[in-house]
Amino acid sequence: MDMVQAVWLAIIQGLSEFLPISSSAHLILPSQILGWPDQGLAFDVAVHVGSFIAVVFYFRRDIQQLIMAWLKSLGGRSAGTPESKLAWCIILATIPAGLAGLLFGDFIEANLRSITVIAATTIGFGLLLGWADQRQRGLKTVDQLTWRSALIVGGAQALALIPGTSRSGVTMTAALALGFDRTTAARFSFLLSIPIIALSGGYKTLELLAESAVPWAEILVATTLSTVTAYLCIHSFLRLVERVGMMPFVIYRLVLGAFLIYLIGS
Known about the structure:
This protein has helices spanning 3-16, 23-34, 40-58, 60-74, 82-111, 115-135, 147-158, 167-177, 182-209, 216-244, 247-265. It is mainly alpha-helical. The protein has one domain. The protein is globular and about 55 Å long. It starts with a helix and ends with a helix.
């Protein structure tokens, strides 16, 4: 992969990681459609680091409060505060995706990265997102998050291992279907991404360190670009989501899925 391709893919990753359109699908498609080489382990590490930096920096104050409340809850203090409850819900919701990655990650990597699979998941989960968005009543906020709802959203997150599903898309879909408003669904989805990105990125980093030659220039460029674009994406999405809703992304997914079906048949 040359530097021009790395630049474009880093921008695509940054824009699509936190939008409900599937970053994994958008990173697979250039190799499937344009014949670009697979981005490789170094690029995967770089964009994971970039996404992690962006979401942690954006929610840095929230994270600080959550960590402090969680630590206090371990000692029996602040156990019933909204912050400590949210922190425990994030931990609980991370477990299904972590287990699914360990049990099914290799199988999915080997068998479910085709255009056919991406087309089906892009359309199917796009329709689910549209249904959940249209039926949402906007009644529940983060203070009404329960262990049950956290586990359901976490279970939905596990489905995002399949390319085309979209981690942010499927978690927002689950939260909207449970009656949470759009802003709460988006914020919980973004906060929930932090441990899973950290786990995935850490695992890939260990693999990368075992390699003899590491393309540091490519990693630096990809990390920087994905960080900036992901941060701007989070900021813009949270400002607009209540106004525009999810339908623009649903339409985009349906158009993209239809285009992929056309490619399969041509």
